[in-house]
Amino acid sequence: MTATIQRVDDNYVVALPVNILERIKIKESEVVRIFEEYGRIIIQKSEMSTIVNDTTRKTIDEMFENYDGDYEPVQIDWGTPVGNEIW
To answer: How confident is the model over 35-46, as pLDDT tens digits?
Structure first.
């Protein structure tokens, strides 16, 4: 297979065939690692791969819907400022 590299704004892009992405189980909007190795460009599914898509993201209420523990806020003393922190 051959492909053409095209410029889009300050980036270069290559169209990747769907059948290749399906074989390696990479979905649209999934995080991948891109690196160079021995003169080759490698695109690899990230081990910390997450799909960033509003339809798959849970709200805070959904994330805690089965939480049945008691929550009590705790005051944490972070100490005095040591630099240019804003308090």
So the answer is: 999 999 999 887
